[in-house]
Specification:
The structure is a single chain. The protein is of the alpha/beta class and 372 residues long. It folds into 2 domains: 166 residues, Quinone Oxidoreductase, Chain A, domain 1, CATH 3.90.180.10; 159 residues, NAD(P)-binding Rossmann-like Domain (Rossmann fold, 3-Layer(aba) Sandwich). The protein contains 11 helices and 18 strands. Strands 3, 5, 6, 9, 10, 17 and 18 form a 7-stranded mixed β-sheet that branches. A 6-stranded parallel β-sheet has the order 13-12-11-14-15-16, with helices on both faces. Helix 8 links the parallel strand 14 and strand 15. Helix 3 packs across helix 4 and helix 3 packs across helix 10. The radius of gyration is 20 Å and the shape is globular.
Length: 372
């Protein structure tokens, strides 16, 4: 009789995830079977459930922030043995195409994202190519190791894409899991000042404890309306109105009248990307990370050309960045303990409740982790 395991799966778009009993995954010669110990719940998972970003095929076990213990290795795998503590890169790639060779594996034509195109970590076990497996030091708890593999890694990649240099200033739009990592990483990379923009008072208080200057987001083109409420998320500012928002004005005021050098948008809606662009200094770079599904209007000359500003896309992160990121966490330069604000069991109802909260931007804690 084939061994089975429990997994919480997306069976249909717009429907709650369901607990299912499925076959234990087969282990190929170059694969590693990992017993999941922790799986982070990312905002992307809420987008997958809602259909903002398509998941194929269905049903699919979600979860791309995964840490655990090696349970079995394929016959051709070297360097890993049962019992090793590990965390997983989010992609299973071919390893030999031009993108894999140049270290931009997120563009591998045959690459598959765990929890989106192949079964992920909301389960008791997961199988991954050995090249996607990285060591997790004993000093890093499993819950933090899971969070590190998406929110921290993506925040690190975004700062590198933004070419942050020591002495520059940063604005972080969205003080959730990615934002809290970005605040600490920016400071460790030499940022002179980091501004954290959010609506939630608890998140802003935590951001301040981590060394950021808190800025509560309000827009002038929708007077009295919070910039990340569902109604505001769908609004695109009229090009007849001044592009500056009260959020950008407040950042400039707090920064001595100057814009920031790097702005990171971790929300991905017009109400955050607009003020992120408006907050830039000349030669500034805005890095857009959040998965938005609505168009955003800009003033090409006033906002981009005249300032020689840049809008940069950030697609997740790179495997090559994981060793350095892990070392920063091990040394305490990035403290993920305050980021893990909720721990829940591998239970469909608990996971759906966490995803419901994520769909309400600005509500609840920072990062929920499933303990398996």
């Amino acid at each position: 009789m084939q061994p089975t395991m429990k997994a919480v799966r997306l069976t249909a778009v717009g429907r709650p995830l369901e607990m299912q009993e499925i076959a234990l995954p087969a282990v190929g010669p170059l694969d590693v079977l990992v017993q999941v110990r922790a799986a982070g719940i990312c905002h992307s998972d809420a987008h997958y459930r809602a259909g903002v970003s398509p998941v194929q095929p269905l049903p699919m076990t979600l979860g791309h922030e995964v840490s655990g213990v090696v349970a079995q290795v394929g016959e051709a795998v070297v360097g890993w043995r049962p019992g090793d503590r590990v965390c997983l890169h989010y992609l299973a790639t071919c390893g030999h195409c031009v993108y894999c060779h140049q270290g931009t594996e997120q563009f591998c034509a045959s690459g598959q994202m765990i929890g989106k195109q192949r079964n992920g970590g909301y389960a008791e076990f997961i199988v991954a190519p050995a090249r996607s497996v990285f060591p997790l030091p004993d000093a890093i708890p499993f819950a933090q190791g899971a969070v590190m593999m998406c929110s921290s890694a993506t925040a690190f990649h975004a700062l590198r894409k933004g070419r942050l240099a020591a002495g520059e200033t940063v604005a972080v739009f969205g003080a959730g899991g990615l934002g809290m990592s970005a605040i600490q990483l920016a400071r460790s990379m030499g940022a002179l000042r980091v501004f954290a923009v959010d609506l939630d008072a608890g998140r802003l208080a935590l951001a301040e404890r981590l060394g950021a200057v808190a800025v509560r987001a309000i827009r002038t083109d929708s007077p009295g309306v919070d910039s990340t409420t569902p109604s505001a998320q769908r609004a695109t500012p009229s090009l007849d109105q001044d592009c500056q928002s009260s959020t950008a004005d407040e950042i400039r005021r707090l920064n001595g009248g100057r814009g920031v050098d790097v702005a990171l948008d971790f929300v991905g809606v017009s109400a955050t990307l607009r003020p992120a662009i408006a907050s830039l200094a000349p030669l500034g770079r805005v890095v857009t990370v959040g998965l938005g599904d609505q168009p955003v209007s800009i003033y090409p000359y006033q906002e981009i050309i005249g300032r020689e500003a840049e809008i940069i896309g950030c697609s997740d992160h790179l495997a090559s960045e994981i060793p350095l990121l892990t070392e920063l966490v091990r040394r305490g330069s990035l403290d993920l303990a305050p980021v893990v604000t909720d721990v829940i069991p591998l239970d469909a109802d608990a996971i759906n409740t966490a995803l419901d909260r994520l769909e309400q931007y600005g509500a609840g804690g920072v990062r929920t982790v499933i303990r398996v």
